[in-house]
Design a protein that fits this description.
The complex is a heterodimer of chains A (110) and B (122).
Chain A (H helix, E strand, L loop, with lengths): L3 E2 L3 E4 L5 E7 L10 E6 L6 E4 L13 E6 L2 E6 L8 E10 L2 E4 L3 E5 L1
Chain B lengths: L2 E5 L2 E3 L5 E8 L8 E7 L3 E8 L6 E3 L7 E6 L4 E6 L8 E8 L9 E4 L3 E5 L2
Parallel strand pairs in B: 2-11
Antiparallel strand pairs in B: 1-3, 3-8, 4-5, 4-9, 5-6, 7-8, 9-10, 9-11
Classes of the chains: A mainly beta (110), B mainly beta (122).
């Protein structure tokens, strides 16, 4: 099973853009096109902000966008706001109701 | 509002058992694949178990296979995780989550609960 590697932390200033990467270290995301991104803040439930690499759930700001290039999925957050400060996780479907996750990236908004 | 609320967490000795519950509201679990995921500071997020929307298919992480059982009660609209022979390394926050798609393959979890804390310690 592939592992997903994310940077431990990223930071950006208010109004700027940041990109968080998620790299599959072996098989190409398990051969599936089901990579999701979640936002998690203390005391809150994990929030789905992108799925199938670049789809956005209804109600999620268009400041969040997902993409893929080869074995790397990316989440770009534009127009950074203070409330974007959170942990972000990528997740890949591995078939048969199985998933694997990246280690998470802590976003600091300066 | 679609919501999941976990309960049943607590402190248990190694070798002990616990049953987690996940009460669903504003949707029928009989129409959605569901999953349990756990999170620890050291290992991050780890998928634990999943169940198909019709309850026929189940799967478990190797780390819990043979010790944990996922099940559901349609009449109570509640998902369960029975955990036996608990080990220190099972200490984590346990989350339940639902699939994005109705009667889907369970490839994207869109709604999560806030979690239940399980501590395995003597």
């Amino acid at each position: 099973q592939s592992a997903l590697t994310q940077p431990r932390s990223v930071s950006g200033s208010l109004g700027q853009s940041v990109t968080i990467s998620c790299t599959a270290t072996s098989s190409d995301f398990g051969g599936y096109n089901f990579v999701s991104w979640y936002q998690h803040s203390p005391g809150k439930a994990h929030k789905l902000i992108a799925y199938e690499f670049n789809k956005r759930p209804s109600g999620v700001s268009d400041r969040f966008s997902g993409s893929r290039s080869g074995s790397t999925a990316s989440l770009t957050i534009s127009g950074l706001q203070a409330e974007d400060e959170a942990d972000y996780f990528c997740c890949s479907y591995a078939g048969n109701y199985d998933f694997f996750f990246g280690g998470g990236t802590k976003l600091t908004v300066l | 509002e679609v919501q999941l609320v976990e309960s049943g967490g607590g402190v248990v000795q190694p070798g002990g058992s616990l049953r987690l519950s996940c009460a669903a509201s504003e949707f029928a679990i009989s129409d959605y694949a569901m999953a349990w995921v756990r999170q620890t500071p050291g290992k991050g997020l780890e998928w634990v178990s999943g169940i198909s929307y019709n309850g026929v298919g189940t799967n478990y992480a190797d780390s819990v296979k043979g010790r944990f059982t996922i099940s559901r009660d349609i009449s109570k609209n509640t998902l369960y995780l029975e955990m036996n022979n608990l080990r220190a390394e099972d200490t984590a926050i346990y989350y339940c989550a639902k699939d994005l798609g109705r009667r889907g393959r369970g490839a994207t979890m869109d709604v999560w609960g806030k979690g239940a804390t399980v501590t395995v310690s003597s």
